[in-house]
Amino acid sequence: MTTPRLPADDLTGALDSAARFVPLVGTVPTFWRAPLALPATAAIDGETREISPGTLAAAMRALAPLLDGADIAFKKIDSLLRARNCPGRFWR
pTM to 2 decimals? Predict the structure, then answer.
């Protein structure tokens, strides 16, 4: 079974990403904050859209372990590029 892990800038992005994977994997649990026991397939609001530039790198490092074990792993960024994502490319 394919297991996507989808951190996103905000909850809307997590829901958008999850919806795209439903035809492939079925229901994708979506979370405002990562639970202690994250399911194999999940979309998570990483709360990075409004984050300050000084704390972005630390936030990205904190999200990185959520991708462990995923067959498909990517961070959904804001479609209008409103978030501070350039440093996000180097988060792992």
Answer: 0.82
